[in-house]
Structures are given as C-alpha cells and as structure tokens.
Amino acid sequence: MSDAHDSRQDAGGLATWLTVVLLVYLLLVGVGVIGAGFKWISGGAEGAAKIFEFASNPVVGVILGTLATALVQSSSTVTSVIVGLVAGGVPVSIAVPMIMGANMGTTITNTIVSLGNFSERKAFRNSFQAATVHDFFNFFCILIFLPIEILFSPLEKLGGYAARLFAGGPDASVSDFNVLGAITKPVASWLVDVLSFLPTTFGALLVIVIGVGFVISSVLLLGKSLRSVMTGRAKNIVQSAIGGGPARGIASGTVITVLVQSSSTTTSLVVPLAGSGVLTVREVFPFTMGANIGTCITALLAATAVTGEYGVFAMQIALVHLFYNTFGVLLFSLTPVLKDLPVRAALWLGRKTEENRGYAFGYIFSVFFALPGVVFSAEALLSDDGDRLTTQPDPAAGIEAVETQGDENKPAIDQ
Question: Domain for residue 413, yes or no?
Fold first, then answer.
C-alpha cells in the first residue's frame, strides 16, 4: 500500500512539474507575441529610427530611448538602431543617453507579466513589486549617471578607448545558439502571418491582446502550480541560487540572461516566483541587476561579429552599455544609502497598487508611453527638418549589419 501511495505521489509530482514547464513555455510565447504585436504597430527597427530623428539633446535621447524600446519591445533592436545611427554620423554624446533610455524601456515586459496576478490582491502586490524594482533601479541609474555623462562624458570616452583595443578581434557572437528564441519565435511569427490580412493597427493590437491573454493565463495557473511544487528541496534550491545573497543573485541573473539571451525573459520568470511567495523583492533585486549585466554581455559578443567601418561603433556602444550597467550594479550594491532605494520605492508602489489597482495601469501608461509620447510629439512639432538626426548619413547599413547579430530579446520576436 505504501509503495502504491508513493508511486501515485511521484506521478502527481511529475505531472505538476510538467505543467510548470508547459506554463513557463506559454509565458515565454506570450511575451514573444506581445513583442511581435508592438513591433508590427511600431515598425520595428525602422520605427525606432524615426523616433530617434527627434533626439535633439541628451534628456530627450533618454526619453525617446524609453519610448522606442517600449514600442519595439526589444532593447537589442533599439541598440542596433542606435549603433547604425552612430555609424551614420549621430554624435555618441546623444547615443549614450538613448542607451540609458533603452534600459528603462525594456522593463515594461516584466511589469506586464505582473498583471497576470491582477485578480489576487496579495500575489499581485508581490508580483508588481518584484517587477518594478527593476524599473526603479534603471530610473535611479539614469538620475545619477546622466548628469555626469552630460558634464564629463566618462562612458563615451571609456567606451571609445576600449573599443579601439577590442575592435577587429575574433567573432564571438552567440546568436546562432539562441535555443529559446528558436522554440518561441515561430508561434509569434505564425500568429502575425495569420492576421496579416487585417489593417496594421487592428491586427497588431489583436496580437498584443492575444499575447497578454497568454501571459495572464499562464501566470495565474503558474502561481498555483508553483505553490504546490516549490516546497522543501525545490524551494531551497531556488532560494539558494537567487536569494542566497546579493553576489549570488547578481551572478545567477547574469549567467541565466547570457544563456537565454533576454533580460526581459529572465526578469519575467522571477515575477511568478515572487507572486507565489517563493522569493521576496529584496531577493529578486540582485537577480534583476545581474540580468542588466547579462544582456550587455550578449550584445558585446554580438558586436564582435560586426566588421568594416561600423565595427568600432558597434563595439563602442556595446561597451558603453556594459560599463553603464556594471557601474550601476556596483554603485547600488556597495553604497549603503543607495542599495535599498529601489526596493523601498517598489514596496511603496506595490502597497499603493494593492489599495487601488488603477495605480498599476496609470504607472505603466504614464512612465512608458504618455510622458515619452508627449516629449516625442513636442519634439516633432518644434524640430525643423534641418535639426533632425536624419540629416546625417543614412544609417540603414549600420542597422542591418548589427541587427543580424545576437539579439538580447530574441523570444519577443527576436530586450
């Protein structure tokens, strides 16, 4: 009797774990479908390039970088565009703030994933806090580093110096090993093809709605499944790998992001774990910082594959991105007054959203779309044709050269 009971328990546990795997796959597909819809409606790389035409100063560059990445749903695509623009003659002093904005814009994905727990008050609070701690980290990094960059340009100078040392080295691109993109991208591509007969706006919005439906369904079911399997040894393993201290969390986030080639995917996967109570916001925070570093390493490896006249620019922007994120992680990890700031901000916003769910939607809309959209519209109205970045040489060749290399957010039809 005891053996039969144990066998049934083992079979039930195996079935639950298989369910978890399938739901994680559905979550990744949902993220990819949302990205495909946003790319369809925004025009992808070409749409991002048009947005950047109006980046007349560093502050606007940051805001438009946020808007472009939120719309395209791929910080690596946006980075590719920025590399092409620099190769076409756009000043690096304007491109560096764009990179900072791209960091901010890519965090919208895991914030959308947190909406999957919208119907459960406590789980939604935990999920939203775990998602927005990444937002606040990137936001505070911009507040600190942007003024320094405007005044002294340390990232631009350091990136340029390092690029001259590394440019022309061997190709270390890992783009051909993106297994995760290979198993999720076909679904999103197929869905776009099926709906391609519809008008662009309507078809893209429908794709986004379907993707959000996948995400919400998977997160709801995943939360329940995780609560049943994340006990004992399994829970200890996760907490040891991610929540076993800041250094271990940063290392785990870096390694996993390099492997899956997507910081959006990495940070999105820990949101359900936080919602189910397996991880706390303080444990998630170092992991998300590591994801910031990991996504830069992927882009850096991809940049080694870019040759010719664009090679040094690709390497410089990739190194600027790496230095910026690495310095941000070091600053917030080692400075006592800063290390808890993003966590406290995320906890505060999470409590507000628990009291009134409208705060969540207001936050997403205002931070990622309304404010950047207003700035973009104002710049479009005020800028003369002669002031736009399109007066520079055509960056299309640079964009094409870089975009074919490794892609940080491959699962979202391709961060």
Answer: no
157 with 285, same domain? Answer: yes
Contact 84, 398 (CB under 8 A): yes
299, 76 Cβ separation under 8 angstroms? yes
* Cα–Cα distance, 254 to 300 (Å, whole number): 13
242-260 pLDDT, tens digit per residue, is 877 889 999 999 988 887 7
Between residues 120 and 412, the one the model is more confident about: 120
Task: Please indicate, yes or no, whether residues 2 and 123 belong to a single structural domain of this protein.
Answer: no
Does residue 185 lie in a domain region? yes
Q: Please report where in the chains the tokens 């990739």 appear, as a residue.
A: 318
Cα 233 from Cα 12, distance rounded (Å): 17
CB 175 within 8 A of CB 406: yes
pLDDT tens per residue across span 196-207: 888 888 888 898
* Residue matched to tokens 């079935």: 15
pTM over 0.85: no
What's the pLDDT score for residue 388? 52
**CA dihedral angle for residue 363, residue 369, residue 370, residue 372, rounded to 10 degrees:** 120
Whether 332 and 347 map to the same domain: the answer is yes
Q: Is residue 352 part of a domain?
A: yes
Distance between CA atoms of residues 49 and 253, nearest Å:
30
Q: What is the pLDDT of residue 135?
A: 93
Question: Shortest CA distance to 44 belongs to which of 78, 86, 13, 21?
Answer: 78
183 and 69, same domain (yes or no): no
